[in-house]
Amino acid sequence: MSTHIETIDQIPVALGGSGAEFAAQLLSAPEAMTGLTLEEARVVVGYMTPRFVPANTTFIREGDASDSGFMALLIEGEVVVERVTINNNEPVTIRVMGPGSLIGEIGLVDSEPRSASCTANTDLWCAILTRDAIKAMIQHDPVVAARLLLGVSASIAERLRDTNRQLKLYARLATAMREELAHSSTPASPIKGT
């Protein structure tokens, strides 16, 4: 697979046609949760640059603060998102993402260190949107930039709500386990004879 691609339009897509148009369709699809129309997505794609990532390459590293100024729209391939847990040095797979997924958008929004690592499970084609490109979009296409940022924020908020639901479930399970342990460690009452 050739990796010398200068524009999104040159990205090879499995169904043929334009890489830029395919990226815009992915970005405007309901699953992307951006809330963009196809025309607005085309504007956003115009600010993106192509990037090829070979399989087994970690292109976002958890804790990295120096490279948090971009997000990627996955056009082709599969990404494994992993996070190291507190009690374990081995990464835990959080999710596997495919075409149409936005990757790295939290770092783009808050400029903080990356919250998870992303590794190419297969060869990837991505459309990259940098913080500088967002700033240019805000100047030249402010309505589209605002709609994109609202959509990205809504996507982040939905993931946060999902995490909160999971934390509530874990808290209930931990409480039930404590109660069960407390109950099982209580000495049995002696049996009275007749």
Description:
Helix 1 crosses helix 2 (38-45) and helix 4 (131-140) crosses helix 5. The strands form 2 sheets. The chain has a 4-stranded antiparallel beta sheet. A 4-stranded antiparallel beta sheet has the order 2-7-4-5, with no helix packed on it. It has helices spanning 19-28, 38-45, 105-110, 131-140, 142-184, and strands spanning 49-53, 58-60, 70-76, 79-84, 91-97, 102-103, 117-120, 124-130. With 194 residues, it is an alpha+beta fold. The chain has a single domain, classed as Jelly Rolls, CATH 2.60.120.10.
Q: What share of residues is helical? A: 25-40%
User: Biggest sheet, open or closed, and with what strands and sense?
Assistant: 4 strands, antiparallel
The rounded distance between the terminal residues' Cα atoms is 86 Å
- SSE sequence, one letter per element: HHEEEEEEHEEHH
Strand order of the largest sheet: 1-8-3-6
The gyration radius over C-alpha positions equals 22 Å
CATH architecture: Sandwich
The rough form would be described as: elongated
Residue share in β-strands: 15-25%
Number of separate domains: 1
Question: Could you tell me the mean pLDDT?
Answer: 85
> In terms of structural class, how would the helical and strand content be classed?
alpha+beta
CATH secondary-structure class = Mainly Beta
Q: Stretches where pLDDT falls below 50 for ≥5 residues?
A: none
User: Number of DSSP strands?
Assistant: 8
The CATH homologous superfamily corresponds to Jelly Rolls
- As for the CATH topology, it is Jelly Rolls
- Helices, by number, come to 5
